[in-house]
Description:
By secondary structure, the chain is α+β, with helices and mostly antiparallel strands. 49% of the residues lie in helices and 18% in strands. The longest helix has 22 residues, at 102-123.
Amino acid sequence: MEDIAMKKDETPYLIFTCRKCKGFxxxxxxxxxxxxxxxxRIHQVxxxxxxxxxxxxxxxxxxxxxxxxxxLALPEFRSGSDFIVAMRSAALHKSRAKPVKHENQIIxxxxxxxxxxxxxxxxxxxxxxxxxxxMSEDYGIPAxxxxxxxxxxxxxxxxxxxxxxxxxxx
Length: 170
């Protein structure tokens, strides 16, 4: 009888960053194209060869992508205990806000948004839009109101969007 042995996967994979959404992905180096699973942009493999990192084996590729995505995460969301601390601080922010009427509620959202931008700018020089969406949930800002606040902050120059689809605050 033949001995069947497990063969280690030595297929070369390229780990790269999507040029549109900045998410990490992997692709076999023999493929011609790769579609980003997050935003749908199609990348030509020969165009991204010089920008990526080469690893061998699918498990290594998957683990590398997970590790790199985790490095992008907000520090308070990296581990379970940190998440609890972040939720407590978000609860403090919510408890500071006084229950107000409709006109004053808009001002309250502006103040919360300003605090949120200050917090993000302390943590990061630049940040993607989804970080604003995540933090707005913690600060109790509704998604509909967030769009208006982002638009107004861009107009006033408080929030600036660069060419790489990242934001930064002044």
